[in-house]
Each structure stands twice: as structure tokens, then as C-alpha cells.
Amino acid sequence: MSGVWIFDKKGVARLITNPTRESFELMEPTYPGTGTATAPGARPKVLVYLPENQVICSYADLEKILIELGWSRYNNPIRSDFMQFHKSDDSAHLISLPKDFRNFKSLHMYDIVVKNPSFFEVREPFG
Length: 127
Fold this sequence. Notes:
The protein has a domain at 43-123. Strand 6 (82-86) and strand 7 form a beta hairpin. The protein contains 2 helices and 8 strands. With 127 residues, the chain is α+β, with helices and mostly antiparallel strands. Belongs to the FPF1 family. One of its GO terms (biological process) is regulation of flower development. This is Flowering-promoting factor 1-like protein 1. InterPro entries: FPF1.
């Protein structure tokens, strides 16, 4: 038996023998910025600013915090559909984010956490 086992909210498992990409996508994300391709039943992630225990819900909130932490908005990103932040002109540290917050995925969240480990954390939302 090959395929993917999926558990529903009641803990009942079922086997999807030929999963397609569509079967792993969320049609309507529950939380802003969590429209990632995820297995059904998997919970979306949120980025949390630890000093204030604040869930990041917009790029305006995130940009304000990153600037306070010493990051600057890079004005000439390599791709026009991304925005970038850098630590300083002589630093190799760079954070690249999609311009549309709806495309902000856990991959981007973990990139921020790795570069700011004392200030951010990726969590499963409550509810």
C-alpha cells in the first residue's frame, strides 16, 4: 500500500493512493500569509515576534520590526516580485520575501527565524 495517509480532525486516517498537488493545497488560507501548499489536516504556521508575543499579520508590522532590529529595505531586488532586506551593505545576510503577503510561506518565516533567532519563532496558531 503506497500513498499518503491523512488524518482528519477526529483522528480517523484514510489513504490517498495517488495524491495530486491540488489535494495538498489550501483553497482559502485560515490565517494571512499561510496559504502554503500543505497536507490536508496540517495546521498552517504563523511567525511570532517573541519580545511582544505578536503574530505577524502584515508586511507593515514585519518591516517595522526588522528595521528596529537593524535590517534595511533593499531598494533594488533581483526579482521585481520580491522585496528584500539586508543587515548592512558589507554583510551577506539577506532576507527575500514575496511582495504579496498571501504568498508568505513557512519557508520565508524560517529564513527570518534563522537570521534573527532571539526575536522570532514559527508556531502553529491557536484555535
